[in-house]
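Retro notes
What went well: the complex prediction finally ran end to end.
Inputs used:
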Amino acid sequence: ETGVTQSPTHLIKTRGQQVTLRCSSQSGHNTVSWYQQALGQGPQFIFQYYREEENGRGNFPPRFSGLQFPNYSSELNVNALELDDSALYLCAWGGDLNYEQYFGPGTRLTVT
Amino acid sequence: QQQVKQSPQSLIVQKGGISIINCAYENTAFDYFPWYQQFPGKGPALLIAIRPDVSEKKEGRFTISFNKSAKQFSLHIMDSQPGDSATYFCAAILSSGPARQLTFGSGTQLTVLP
């Protein structure tokens, strides 16, 4: 087990709505990343936070935003949901002193 | 180019056989290459990783072979077991950037027949 938890496990939203996904870690790492994994594809990097500040972003629009908190937790917020946002959303902790990143089980988001 | 290309898309192997998954990359600045294993309904789990200054790394039944000049690396699973049936992703990290983001391949669905 990685000690990374995510909530909720599954979520169904309607197009145009907003959603907040949560992630926490027992590892004590300072870096958290979020990835989007569409069905049958590899995870795509959304952004990364280091010590509560965003320090990198992939090719995702500004309606994807995040927060990192001092208690080793993080949130991913998505506004104005689109049908293509339906995916498994993964958070991963680690990568401070080494390159290893440990993933949570993910949140399955369905947008109808 | 940040792409990592992975093949095959799917692989069926008999129990006890060798499973081989291949990846190729373009960006020579990548300097860390992990493999992840993902079971249905679970997040990817780090399996084994290698740096480009090493040509091979072995951990139990899992071996990474790395060819820096060809910009290719592969995962070999020896004595494959039905419990190895999962989706495998190769990935790469560019450590010089501000964010150590993983760039993943498209995945290989491995089925090991009993």
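What we learned: Chain A touches chain B at residues 2, 4, 6, 31, 33, 35, 40-45, 47-48, 50, 55-58, 90, 92, 95, 99-106 (CB under 8 Å).
What to try next: split runs per interface for comparison.
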